[in-house]
Amino acid sequence: MYHTTGLTIEQITDLCGLVDMDTTAEQRRWPPILGLFNSAVITLTYMRCNRVQAELAEAYEVSQPTISRAITGMTPLIERVLRKFVPTADELDDQTQYIVDGTLLPCWSWADRPELYSGKHKTTGMNVQIACTLDGRLAWISDPIEGRRHDTYCLKESGALLTLNPDNWMGDKGYVGNYMLTPIKKPKHRKLLDWEKEFNTQINKIRYVIEQTIANVKTWRILHADYRRPIETFAETISTVIALHFYAAA
User: Fold this and answer.
1) Which residues does the UniProt record annotate as the domain Transposase Helix-turn-helix (predicted)?
2) Given CA atoms 125, 75, 222, 93 in this order, what sign does their dihedral have?
3) What CA–CA distance (Å, rounded) separates 82 from 245?
4) Which structural domain range is residue 57 located in?
C-alpha cells in the first residue's frame, strides 16, 4: 500500500483516527458507501499516483462522481489535521545553512487565469519555494503563489528571510540581489573569468541536493503532471500534499 498511497498502513490508520476525532458529523462528507478508510486511501492514491478518477471508480466498483466526492471531502480534512506537521518559516534555524529553489507545480492552461502562466517554464501552474539543509534534509516548503511570479518575489512573500540571515542561504541565479550565496552572472561586457567559472561550478556541486529534494517531493505525482480538478482546489491540494509529505517523514 505504501507505493500507491505514500504512507504505511499504520500511518493511514492513524490519519483516519485523527480525521475521525477532529470532525463533526456535518464535516464528514466522505461517501458512506466507501467509508472513512477507503475514502482516505482513494484520496492518497489519487495524490500519490495522479490516478484518473474513472480508474479508481472501476477498482472500487463505484461511480466516478462517488470518487470525486471522496477526494473533495477528504482533501481539506487531511490538510487540517496534518497542518501541525508542516514547518513554518519562523521555525527555520538562523544558525543553519539552507539551499533554496523554486519549482512550478503545473496545471491545465486556464484561459481566464493568465496569472498562472510562467514565462520561464512556458506553461501554467503555481510556484512553491523549497528549502533544504546542506545534507539534503527537507526543511520547509512555502505556500503556493501564482506561476507568473519570479522566485525572488515568491521567497519574499513567504516571509522566510524576514528574521533570518540570508548569508546562510544559497540559491541559483534567480536569487541574485537577496544577499545570499549565488552563482555569478555573466556581465554583458565580458565573459566570465576562470575563477568565476570555478566558483559557479563549486556552487552547483553543492546545490544539486535541492534538485534531489524537489524530485522527492514530486514523487507525489499530482504535483508533477497537469492538475485536472477545478483550479479553485489546486492550492488546497498542494497544501494537503505538503502536509502528507512531512507527515510521512515524521
Assistant:
1) 34-82
2) positive
3) 10
4) 2-85
Write out pLDDT tens, residues 19-28. Answer: 999 999 888 9
Residue 232 neighbours by CB under 8 Å, 6+ apart: none
Cα–Cα distances (Å) from 107 to 11, 76, 98, 110, 177, in that order, read 29, 19, 28, 8, 30
- Please choose, from the candidates 187, 176, 185, 183, the residue with its C-alpha nearest in 3D space to the C-alpha of residue 202: 183
* Tens of pLDDT, residues 77-101: 999 999 999 999 999 999 999 999 9
Q: What is the pTM of this model?
A: 0.93
- Are 115 and 76 contained in the same domain? no
Q: Which helix (H) or strand (E) holds 100?
A: strand 98-106
Assigned C-alpha cell, 91 = 521555525
| Domain closes at, from 28, 57, 85 | 85
Please tell me the distance from the alpha carbon of residue 250 to that of residue 245, in angstroms, as a whole number: 9
